[in-house]
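Continuing the batch. This is chain 6 of the set; chains 1 through 5 are on the previous pages. Same settings as before, nothing changed between runs. Recording input and output for traceability.
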Amino acid sequence: MTYVLVPGGWHGAWSWRPVAKRLRAASHRAVTLTLPGLGDGDDPSGYKLKDAVDYVVNEVRRLDLDDVILVAHSWGGYPATGAAHMLADQVAKIVYYNAFAPLRGRSLVEEYPPNTRELMLRLISESPCRAMAPSLDLVEQLLMQGEVPELQRLVADLLTTQSGGYFLDALDVDAESLSIPATYIASDNDCALPRPAAEFAARVGVEPIVVPGTHSSMLTHPDDVANAILTA
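Output for chain 6:
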């Protein structure tokens, strides 16, 4: 079995390494991805959601992978869902982990209530490169609330500015119409998603598997997250 791990917004392959290490220890192949514009020092300007979808598709094909389980964190549900539709012969399952299960024609920004949506749109429009930068406040309040400050600061330093197009673009397919099995893993203390995890899980017709931790519990509870992925 090959696991292809798709990071969430502002994250890169680094965010999946603790989980990937455990998947490999269980005798599976694990491929961690950093999507276009999200590498250290990358210019985030101009990227569209299609670029992220195409990157996932091209990496699976370039590595000649079969029997793939796509695992998507947070915003990563968008490129993973788009890629799964294009890789139906190679993807055996998609696992949403604290992730958006996209609806056709609805962007990530449109999933949020008006006040948050307006803030995101303003931050992107005011950015010279039409991107959205992460902050320590984001980590402290939404991604890893309650974790030790040293870890919060480290993660904030690792996050990278993300193209606004990744948040503003929608898919022309949706999670509901996937022709492959899907599962949903939810952290019990996730407060970053705009709606309950059970609602996203319902979009793919499943009940969430609950693990401990916050939105980014793959960094604080990698054993639990890896075990949930292996048994999902």
